[in-house]
Input
Amino acid sequence: MKTISIPGALAPAGHYSPAIISGGLVYVSGILAIDPFGGTKLSDKDFAAQAEQVLANLELILNEAKSSLSKLLKVTVYITNISDWDEFNRIYASKLGDHKPARTVVPVKELHFGLKLELDAIATA
Output
C-alpha cells in the first residue's frame, strides 16, 4: 500500500490521505473545491468554478499516483443542488472526452464549508 499526496500542497485537515494505491488501484478520497496549495475554499464561487477546481484537484492527485483521468474506473459525485447535474455532466465530459467511467451522482443536503460538490474516485494505477 502506498500513500499519495500532492507535493507542495497543504496537508489534509482531517485524518486521511488524498489517495491510496493498493492492488493496482488508486482510491481517491473525497475532493472539495479547495485550492490544495493555498487552502482557499471556493464557497463563494459558482458551481462551474467549483466543479473545475474539483476536477483539477482530481487530476493532480491521479498524476501524482502515476495515473490519469483516462484511467478512472468509478466516480461518485455529491451535489447540493440536483439542478446542477447537467452542468456537472457538461464540465465532466469536456475533461474526460470519450472516456466514460462508471459514475454515480448523489444529491445531498449540504457539504462542508458550504461547497456545492464533492467527488471521490477509483482509478487504475
Q: What stands out?
A: Residues 79 and 85 are 8 Å apart (CA to CA). The helical segments are 47-64, 85-96. The chain has one domain: 2-124.
